[in-house]
Design a protein that fits this description.
Blueprint: H1 11-15, H2 19-25, E1 27-30, E2 33-36, H3 37-51, H4 55-63, H5 66-78, E3 85-89, H6 95-104, E4 109-114, H7 117-129, E5 136-140, E6 153-159, H8 168-178, E7 179-190, H9 196-218, H10 221-232, H11 237-247, E8 249-257, E9 262-269
Parallel strand pairs: 3-4, 3-6, 4-5, 6-7
Antiparallel strand pairs: 1-2, 7-9, 8-9
Length: 272
């Protein structure tokens, strides 16, 4: 087996994921491949069309089921009040939405908002099986232009989806816009493991085992290599915290999970 060398991008490479560089260069990354910015969203849509059927199964297999614990922790950190109205951006197959709907109770409401109809088609039966279909709505749309009025949600969340948005800052700014003053944002995303030895093991697993399982189980090696590559380009927790603060969120904090494989960011929309 080839020994992988330092697949994590440097400061300059991570800055190329942010809106200012994308707008200036008119290019964006799709995995490690640089493409025209206008091409990224259609490519992402085709990717999720291809992986949707096996998406939940592969998440559980590749994470050894740990992603469920991460999601439960993330929703708990939102501290949803009974009756809360919650927006789940890039909500796909509705894992976070189901947890949020249970937390917000019978008077609560959750909207799954995703650009990919195929992914949501696998979320609807899950909401029905959880007997939450009357508390969870599904809306197709672009995270960079949310189809909701200002200040209408108590909380907004995005789990493992912001990497796939072309203009990340624009999407976060839209979430800020639709939050009520005092409303909370939660972002759960993959990140760089903190311990170097663990990071090396994680890299070998990510670049060799994950794509192999993607080919054997989902018949989609390229899709799971794309996942691995996109994680290596994502901003560090401190960099993402600065992005959120610059947009206008206050009390921004983050919590690393499983040695930093995943990170939860929490921010609050300032009150006037």
């Amino acid at each position: 087996m080839t020994i992988l060398k330092s697949p994590w991008t440097d400061d300059r490479g991570r800055k190329e994921q942010l809106d200012d560089h994308i707008q200036h260069s008119r290019t964006a990354y799709f995995g490690f491949q640089k493409v025209a910015a206008a091409e990224k969203q259609p490519r992402v849509s085709r990717h999720f069309d291809a992986v949707a059927r096996r998406y939940d199964l592969m998440n559980s297999l590749l994470s050894f089921g740990i992603h469920h614990a991460w999601k439960r922790t993330a929703v708990r950190m939102l501290g949803l009040a009974p009756g809360a109205k919650v927006l789940d951006v890039c909500g796909g197959t509705a894992d976070l939405a189901i947890l949020a709907a249970r937390s917000a109770g019978p008077a609560g409401r959750v909207v799954v908002y995703d650009i990919n109809r195929t992914m949501m088609s696998y979320g609807r039966p899950k909401a029905a099986a959880a007997r939450l279909e009357n508390r969870i709505d599904f809306v197709q749309g672009n995270a960079e232009a949310l189809s909701f009025p200002d200040a209408c949600f108590d909380a907004a969340m995005v789990g493992f989806g912001i990497r796939n948005v072309t203009h990340m800052k624009r999407a976060f700014a839209e979430m800020h816009r639709v939050l009520k003053p005092g409303g909370k944002l939660m972002c759960l995303e993959f990140s760089k493991p903190a311990w170097p030895v663990f990071r090396w093991i994680y890299d070998q697993y990510s670049f060799y085992v994950m794509p192999l399982l993607g080919r054997l189980i989902a018949n989609n090696r390229a899709g799971y290599l794309l996942l691995t590559e996109s994680i290596r380009l994502f901003p560090t927790p401190r960099e993402l915290a600065k992005v959120l603060s610059d947009i206008g969120f206050s009390d921004v904090r983050f919590r690393r999970l499983t040695n930093g494989i995943a990170v939860i960011h929490i921010g609050t929309k300032k009150t006037p």
